[in-house]
Amino acid sequence: MDRGEVVVLQQGFVAGDYNTPGETPSPRAILTGHEAAISALAVSAEHGLVLSGCEDGTILMHTTAGELLRRWNGKQRVSQLLMSRECVVMAIYGHHRFITLTTTANQLDEAATDEK
User: Fold this and answer.
1) What is the CATH number of the domain that holds 12?
2) CB 102 within 8 A of CB 87
3) 52: nearest Cα among 34, 30, 25, 26
4) Which candidate, 31, 38, 39, places its Cα nearest to that of 12?
5) Contact indicator for 1, 14 with CB cutoff of 8 Å
6) The whole model's pTM is what?
């Protein structure tokens, strides 16, 4: 695994630099805090951040070491999460509502499309 590369496994933990090729990944961090199934995930190895969104609309921001930094509460299923190099977060709720946020939890903008 290349330096700085992060893998989030289905079991809910982050595996990283300390695993050797062919070895079963061991947890580097366990991400906790969601009360519903995770529906979207974004990892920024460059910034050391993991974003996870779930079915109940909650978005959590963890460090790749597992520390919970932020929680945003929404009302719809999170279907996509993206993070720019400038640390602007875009969350897509369902297929029709788009929100941009800063990593300090300030909402920048919101847009919705017609549900057709």
Assistant:
1) 2.120.10.30
2) yes
3) 34
4) 31
5) no
6) 0.75
